[in-house]
Amino acid sequence: MSGIGRASALIGAGTIVSRLTGFLRSVVLVSAIGATTAGGNAFAIANQLPNNIYAIISTGLLSAVVVPQIVKAAAHDDGGRAFVSKLFTLGTVVLLGTTIIATVAAPWLVALYAPGYPPQQQALATAFAYWCLPQILFYGLFALVGESLNARRVYGPYTWAPIVNNIVSIAGFLVFIWLFGPTGSATAWTPEMIAVLAGTATLGIVVQTGILFLFWRQTGLHIRPDFAWRGVGLGQIGKLAGWTFLMVVAGQLAGLVQSQVMSEIPKSDPGVFVAQNAWLLFMLPYSIIVLSIGTPYFTRLSEHAAAGRDDEVRGDIGRSIRTLGVFVVAATAALAAAAIPASRIFTDSPDEAVGAAGVLLCYLVSLIPLAVLFVVQRSFYAYDDTRTPFFFTILQCAIVVLTAWSALWAFHEGVLPSAQLVAAVALGQSFASVVQVIVATWLLQRRLGGLRVGSWLLALGRFALAAIPAGAAGWLVFQLLGGTAGWMVSDKLLGALGAAVIGIVVLVVYVGFLALLRAPELSVATGLVRRFLPGRR
């Protein structure tokens, strides 16, 4: 357990710093181009395009398939050197080809993702996209190297490298403000402005990837270009990745529908950029808690599954869900209570913060289910089963598409105001995730002959029981300090401070109630937290 704790602390600490600098990056970006402007939404679409490809590579193929396969390849006579060399060569060729094709197709990609944008805004988004789409190559290499490091239990660099990206971006965006001043108009942009803003975003990814390569020697693997892609099991990866690829493509198609729906929102209302920033807030606890704790568990779970020790896998699943749950439930309560001041960090006015907070709350509905899904889905991957996750993900994607289209229909019929369209899309996504995790858990229980679901559901119930008064206490603090007319929403910096105050209140009350309930998971959580303190090992 100490190895899991040390790895979790290392990943978690890096993720915290990365997310905090990422927050600052987004604050500076909003200050430069606005939260609900035409320019802001144009850049949001363009900069999201390479991220969509990265999602296919990282969330799909790499984390699902490569980690278990590299763990297995370590048992080869050469320690997996030939396997990794062929894998990296093939991956680089595919990434380079994909980058070239996507960059050439930039105008069509923008038109596909944002059909509701007027011509000037589409042209601006396309100009941004030409600068942003080369990120695909470097995102992919970053994911390939990072997941290989994770598979060799070298967890730190993959988590800490994005901090450099954020620093480069912050510096570049500040230079943009210094040179050109804040602007969001779709007609005010010059080629120099586009190059500084979008070029900065891409430069950050390039530097981030280059730094990660400096740590490769810690894997103990010496790789070389190898175009002989047969003979060491790449066919098995292709078979496994086929289902994963289709699954992630389905997710991207669902995201495409959401983007198309949001492109019809008037520029003065919460749109694509607001949705992205709300998602950034939503992902803060997910990244810090779920990825930092769950990633080391996944590596160990893969080893147990490969050895056929199903009972130990069941134990891993239960322990990881209970450990994740004690933190995730607290984060959900804290972020819900602080939704308005937290949203103020990424908006230009209190009214914009209230609208963005509604979007965040709709996303938060799925935070706890997604933590459970992280464990359940990767349990299938540990058994080299990517086919089953494809089917329950297809169900989730279908619900996402149907709810997004329903929201758009309600908007066109005048039933749903444009200011609430993004929130409706977010709520539909959360509902789809809840359905997905229920189906996925049922399927995994059938496969393993039982998951001891009752034990970790009971634990989640205890956490929820403690979270209700904790969240209420945080909301009461917000109201007592002025609510939407108070100091917490008067400025971006004060919004961050207010969110921190509310979060501390929620956490203190939550821990107190868990202690009263004598929750056994509290001692485990306390042990993990102690590993973040200076001087602890």
Automatic annotation (TrEMBL):
Transmembrane region(s): 27-46, 52-75, 87-108, 128-146, 158-181, 193-216, 237-258, 278-299, 320-342, 354-376, 388-409, 421-444, 456-481, 493-517
Gene Ontology CC: plasma membrane
Membrane topology: Multi-pass membrane protein
Record carries keyword Nucleotide-binding: no
UniProt keyword annotations, A-Z: Cell membrane, Cell shape, Membrane, Peptidoglycan synthesis, Transmembrane, Transmembrane helix
Compartments where found: Cell membrane
GO terms classed as biological process: lipid translocation; peptidoglycan biosynthetic process; regulation of cell shape
Principal location class: membrane
Listed GO MF terms: lipid-linked peptidoglycan transporter activity
Listed PANTHER family: LIPID II FLIPPASE MURJ
Full protein name: Putative peptidoglycan biosynthesis protein MviN
Naturally occurring in which organism (per UniProt): Microbacterium trichothecenolyticum
Phylogenetic placement of the source organism: Bacteria, Bacillati, Actinomycetota, Actinomycetes, Micrococcales
Gene: mviN
